[in-house]
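Write out this protein's structure.
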Amino acid sequence: MEAAEYFSKDFEWEELKAEVENDSSFRFHLLPFQPPNRPSQTATEDDSAAWKRFHIRHSSGKFFKERRYLLKEFPELVSRGECSKVLEVGCGNGSTALPILRGNEHIIVYACDCSSETLERAEGIIDAATSASVRHRFHTFYCDFSIVGFPKWLACHTCQEVFLQKQQSFLSDVKESNGSYFNDSCPPEESGCCIGGVDFVTLIFTLSAVPFQRMPTSIKECFSVLKPGGMLLFRDYGLYDMTMLRFESDQRVGFREYMRSDGTRSYFFCLDTIRDLFAGAGFIELELEYCCVKSVNRRNQKSMRRVWVHGKFQKPM
């Protein structure tokens, strides 16, 4: 298989910022958000249900490409030794889990999503693309982590005790994708009370789909299931990305937060927002930067400027 390339500096973000903020047609993106006086359909939309419908519409799997570039962006996933554990949050159809499983024959991936249909499709894609020796290292479970938190079998007790002292635990039992339940006293492929926490959490284009007010709790959930010294690997939409500038003013549901016509939402991050969110959860910042990439639309030959935020954060030892 051809190796993926990784680019991150095709243009300077500060130049794009100046261009956008001096363009009057983009002015509404910069204004403080004024919530509507009465509840609207977008304000009451069920976020999980919207994403379930989204994945059903794109059930062919062609909508998502395998993210092979992640192994170059996050080489720690390849270099980590035997029996390392990854929690892939918001796994979709497996486009992130698949290259991780292929890139490290010793790694175990636990993958969750808020759509059981999506999890079934991810399992099918992993089955079709890999051997049985890879499939047994891929475990899925149903979970909307921003609402109910992660299941108790996942988090190590030491992390839980520290987290519980600071705020009420959001840890809860959640239904596995195939309809059965993980028992707290008998987690998958392990013995004892839990799997002891994970070495990595990946948040790849997941946090932006969570309502902004639920982001702090969601990140604390990720912190609680990491082993001391474990890392959270982050990639998501950056401020002034091309897709942000395509939204109309009536699609705003918050400051830098938008809702598509299908009910799915997207937030666009600046570095300071990410820094504050992760520091507030207790993480140590290792890397944080904008990835600025130019691409060309093959259909109309127009140049597109994409902005993503790349980050690596560590749980203190």
